[in-house]
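Predict fold of DNA-binding beta-propeller fold protein YncE; 322 aa.
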Amino acid sequence: MKKKTHLLFILFIILLAGCQDKSYQPVKEGQEFAATLNLGEFSIDFLNKKGEVFGHWELHKAYTGARLLPDGDTLLLFGPELEEVDFYSLKTGKLKRSFKTGKGIVNGVYLKNNLGFAFADKESNAVRFFNKNGEEIKSVKTKPYPLEMETDGQYLYVASFKGKALAFINLDDYSIESELSIPASSTGMLLRSKESELWIGGHGEGTKPQSFIAVYSLKTQALKEQIPAPLMPVDFYENNYGLYALSHGTNMLYRFDFDKKLKAQVEVGANPFAVSSFSGKMIVAGFDSNEVYWIDPETLEIEGKTKVGKGPFGIFTREKVE
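Predicted 3D structure, encoded as tokens:
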């Protein structure tokens, strides 16, 4: 009898341990980093200014997206096959809270003015709004597969990957104020609030890969111009040196000046999907090469490489917490 009780106690402890939320290696407050979300093995690598990996998280869920919130500590993680979105503290490595959402979440945006979050749900074809307590307050139907989202505080701009539509959602009343027709399979978005324009890239449709960046005027809510960027521009960045476009179809990184004239270009990585900036350098994640490339922001000369986990798909950075 005692032996049976002992075995039951051990089983209970094992089950209890399995139910506990997994914690990860803490990242010190003030530690500046660039991090990659790796989809080939579901992990996160943290890199310092020297290009060295100083932290590695083996994720226990199929997270496909990550957003570092403005506090510089809270990391939002989500994925379309998960029933919830999770919020982790970097300084403790522990789960802070979860919002029950059901499956389908492919993107998430923090809404500062509304003190909440917007989540793109490809299963319900809607943008779902939650308050900071995790309560869903509104669901706005969109065209099929809402994916890319950016906000200027007044509007939430939502590009539907399959629906060929760009929705302008007014954040005062959560209504779609207008919709524009955009190319199929649109992905990658850069909001330029001061210039009142939105850059959108994409994969193209069928056998015709997209070879341009579509620039939309936020004032006229119409297509403004198209900038050549072959093939399949999927991510963008802007700094004092100009505007950058990463085209994963040709493994090219382009730098344009503020007149949108091409100034430099370089072939980088193998199947790159993400570009960002860290410690004065441009950084690109090569999905098939499993490397982060460190690039001069003006000349686009590749100055170094860092090996990371399999399939780096997204980049988030922390240099200074506001």
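The longest strand covers residues 105-111.
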